[in-house]
């Protein structure tokens, strides 16, 4: 069995994730005249095939230009966001409304001369994407945080902080990786060399394992934020009361984070965490209401008698190939009674991609799937692929329950009739 770092995102956090996740092309801004709409624009495509062009009307072209310009310039807002986070502006503002000069007095070292014009223009850009609010009084601009912007503060106890997410996604190693995506797709150079590796000269594992403490800290804080948020999302999405008097085994549950939360809120549910014997031996004392058991997911005889098996991010494609994933599910099948249930916490991509979908949960899943591509992580499964995997292991999907975390739907499996 393998354990690995876990992923999230509450629906209240999605606007900020979408801003950070929208990474467009990096090019100089140009003005296109109306008369140029119908003309052919030179491209850098190296394609050997010339398809018949899709010709659209002038009205359709005009209607389509603004969304395309906004998408292509979306990285302006992403980089502006990173700049204010790096300067500590959200913590400087807090609950206050401050002028640019007031903020500038807290930015930089004592001998630095803050460029107030650049600061004001950056802040005004972030007003347009919902991070800040602005006022214009007495010939001066003043700014305050919106609810979304408040999540960038680093010093509020009990409140989520997305500043590490911004720092992680927007720092140069990952940003530069996007620039190598075209060559990776086209198979140029060393064909299997990943975008991250091409951009940085080392793999992501090597980079974060080297002397890059800030990058490693941002990455670890990001993973912790995702994992912690998923716990609450899972508690709210599933009817755990329906399992009162029953036993749930969390396979690959590590030190019992999920089961501890379940046991605390639903004490009538018996909670067991199964992980490798060496993990259990090195674990601290189990949380109240949780039992630790050493075992092997491939050996059903080591799985305690139970009614439900729970697995979060254990069947991710980056963990196992499809045959191994089927074997894991078959092992669970053998360990469960005839009416037993498997609950899988994983991302689920839709089978059909609606053009221009405004569903933020869906958008973020697709962003994350493409993001994982940069570092060589396998893609997320679609609903159809989950159905196929379940069927090959002897199950049917009873339901797929969305949570407030796009990275963690709950896939509920029942044994298929024999």
TrEMBL record:
Q: Which UniProt keywords apply?
A: Methyltransferase, S-adenosyl-L-methionine, Transferase
Q: MF terms per GO, please?
A: O-methyltransferase activity; protein dimerization activity
Known Pfam families for this protein? Dimerisation, Methyltransf_2
Which ranges form a coiled coil?
Answer: none
Transferase among keywords: yes
Every copy of the O-methyltransferase C-terminal domain together lies at 178-395
What's the protein name?
O-methyltransferase domain-containing protein
Domain O-methyltransferase dimerisation, first and last residues per copy: 69-152
State the taxonomy lineage: Eukaryota, Sar, Stramenopiles, Ochrophyta, Bacillariophyta
**GO biological processes:** methylation
Q: Does the keyword Transferase apply?
A: yes
